[in-house]
Amino acid sequence: VFLAVSSNTRYQIVNGLERLVEASPLARQVPPVALAFTVGVRFANNVYGGMQFVDWARWSGCQ
């Protein structure tokens, strides 16, 4: 249930944000900007997803 609801939603949001940034003129002129954005967003997504999973595991009694 956690993967279907939380992870999929976050994955879709991250991909949408990456598409917006990659289509921007700044990212086309300075590709490291797009790369830095992608790394930052994916890192933040992993951290937030981990925190959500721990909260969900505690709430459901798995931990």
TrEMBL record:
Set out the biological process GO terms recorded for this chain's protein: plant organ development
Can you tell which superkingdom this protein's organism belongs to?
A: Eukaryota
The record's GO CC annotations read: chloroplast inner membrane
What PANTHER family does the record point to? Answer: EXPRESSED PROTEIN-RELATED, OS04G0524400 PROTEIN
- Designated name of the protein: Uncharacterized protein
* Native species: Nymphaea colorata (pocket water lily)
